[in-house]
Amino acid sequence: MADLEHLDTIISLCKKRGFIFQSSEIYGGLAATYDYGPLGVELKRNIRDAWWKAMTQKHDNVEGIDAAILMHPKTWEASGHVDSFNDPMIDDKQSKMRYRADTLIEGYIMKLRDKGKEDEANRVQGLLDTAGSRNGLAKDLFDIIIEEEIRSPDSGAFDWTDVRQFNLMFKTQFGSISSDEDDSAVYLRPETAQGIFVNFTNVQQTSRQQVPFGIAQIGKAFRNEIVARQFVFRMREFEQMEMQYFVEPGTDEDNFENWKAERLAWHKSIGIREKNLRFADHPEDKLAHYAKGATDIQFKYPIGWQEIEGIHNRTDFDLSQHQEFSGKKQEYFDPHTQKRYIPYVIETSVGLDRTILMTLCDAYREEETETANGKTEKRTVLKLHPKLAPVTVGIMPLIKKDELQDIAHKLKAELSEFFKVQYDEKGSVGKRYRRFDEGGTPFCVTVDFDGLEDQTVTVRDRDTMEQDRVALSEVENYIREKIKTWKPED
Ligand code: GAP
Questions:
Q1: pLDDT in tens, 193-234
Q2: How far is the CA of 309 from the centre of ligand 1 (A)?
Q3: What is the pLDDT of residues 233-264, one digit of tens each?
Q4: Is ligand 1 within 6 A of the CB of residue 87?
Q5: What pLDDT, on the 0 to 100 scale, is given for residue 84?
Q6: Separation of 351 CA from ligand 1 center, angstroms?
Q7: How far apart are CA 318 and CA 343, in angstroms?
Q8: How far, in Å, is the centroid of ligand 1 from the Cα of 481?
Q9: How are strands ordered across the β-sheet holding 456-461?
Q10: CB of 267 closer than 6 A to ligand 1?
Q11: Cα dist. 295→56, 260, 286 in Å?
């Protein structure tokens, strides 16, 4: 049994089975934007629902909102995005390729390590770690690239532009276009969080929640990522699931620890194997200026350990900034202690698209199986948590015969009230199983001639390939029970 080794394997399966397509593919695609196909959209909805339920249904003190993507431009001045949401970029003048300067240096360090030059690698890593502390980040990164004679990974040239800071926000025009472009400029939000902060008092007052309480939101975010070559891991249009938990200052550290534990547990609850998850705390000297604590939950993607979710103690930075820029009080009055204060915020922020990629990578297996005539063949299977699977039940008549088809159609209609069900009568039973395995369908129900006699069907388990004979009237309960008790393999 083999796990996934290369991202390309998942990219082709996603295309073949209709999970994810390149956006505007017939026109040659649009870089770092993707469309979800029939299976992808179901998986996405199921993950969204699992997160929403974990936040708003299982916590009485977490409310949901759905804020607009376009926000008043002052929002992004207050949040700091206008001034400091930048990436340091450098261009190879010969190939015209653009790189993130820090990533370029990290790649160079990795190469040194691969060649066994540990001391050299540690020395350059030291330079990278202290970059930005003296002259400004762009100048420091440029100096490292020049002094170390780092060459372009694609062309091999050593012909660089300066390092320049690029703002990652997409700008667009709002309303009638004025002669002065900047008067009507608005941004596509680069994170959903600000829609929550600016609604803090609206939600608190209308829901009558008392601190501590949270606001959860799922929605699109846009970033003009310069280096975006990793499928849905880094996109220019993506979806975030964010929750801001408003707490009394002084209780922030305990709340931060609680949310860390709870969020890791959530990733396991959607079937991700423990061995592929870990925390990566941000060292104190690398924290954003507003943050008191920050940790990432990382997943072991085929491209290495990477951030799937950020958990941050953002202090009272955001609400204080919005209070200052809007002139509107963002305080909370505690009726028990009679104290008035600006709450601290513990933020949990997870990318929906990265979660989709994580579930696909974690679930992917290639296995050797035995066919009916004793030969071995390879099967590709997505061992997704059944509650996330795009199609929960595949129903098929053993062969195309009226009496089998009738029962299969009737069962499909019944089960469709509760699950996403797909009817399939095309090709051999073996071929149909393979299709369902590749799409991650956990249960395949076959209607055969034995069942006509005693009103039973066989239900095949995707993971073990074992088959149970189940009474027609019991199929729904049988599947429910299996979903409830499902556990990932080690
Ligand atoms: N409000 C905090 C915030 O936005 P972030 O670390 O920039 O923090 C949070 O983003 C999460 O959003 C990340 O952990 C990642 O899962 C997802 N994300 C960020 N940029 C992304 C991109 N370009 N493509 C896909 N997902 C992205």
A1: 999 999 999 999 999 999 999 999 999 999 998 766 789 999
A2: 7
A3: 999 999 999 999 999 999 999 999 999 999 99
A4: no
A5: 81
A6: 6
A7: 10
A8: 35
A9: 421-423, 393-397, 443-447, 456-461, 467-471
A10: no
A11: 23, 8, 11
